[in-house]
Amino acid sequence: MKVAAANQVRLTACVAEIGSLRYTPAGLPAIDLKLEHESTVEEAGKPRQVKAALKAVAFGAIAERLARQAMGSLWLFQGFLATPGNGKHPVLHIQDFQQD
Fold first, then answer.
1. Which residues of 27-46 are buried (b: 16+ CB within 10 A; e: fewer)?
2. Burial (CB count <10 Å: 0-12, 13-18, 19+), residue 56
3. Of 12, 30, 33, 91, which has the highest C-beta tally within 10 A?
4. Counting Cβ atoms within 10 Å, is residue 6 exposed (0-12), middle (13-18) or buried (19+)?
5. 94 and 20 in contact (C-beta within 8 Å)?
6. Which DSSP state fits 89?
7. What's the predicted TM-score (pTM) here?
8. With b meaning 16 or more CB within 10 Å and e meaning fewer, what string describes 61-88?
């Protein structure tokens, strides 16, 4: 029996790279991105500078909206993590984004 587990990500990040809008074999719009995050968080009672870069992908209307955004623009992204069949690192699947 499988137990449902949460896989939800909320991340403020800027668009560091954005690919061209493409279409899946099923005709669904898709776009690949690289996101960069930088912040200060508290860890073990001390402030820590955090930087992270990650690959992301979006499909459908979200992909079409992202294709119109400027490089370097800052957003709050929401989605889930999944490792592609041919990859080693998780990719953020963007389900929504809004101005941070």
1. eebbbbbebebeeeeeeeee
2. buried
3. 33
4. exposed
5. no
6. S
7. 0.89
8. ebbeebbeeeeeeebebebeeeeeeeee
pLDDT at residue 4 tops 90 = no
Two structure tokens written together for 75: 């957003």
Query: Tens digits of per-residue pLDDT, 73-99?
Result: 999 999 999 998 888 899 999 999 998
Q: What is the DSSP letter of 70?
A: P
Supply the pLDDT for residue 86: 84
For residue 43, pLDDT over 90 is answered with yes
Strand spans (E) along the chain: 9-18, 22-23, 29-43, 46-59, 74-82, 91-99
Backbone angles phi, psi at 66, to 5 degrees: -65, -35
CA 79 to chain centre: 7
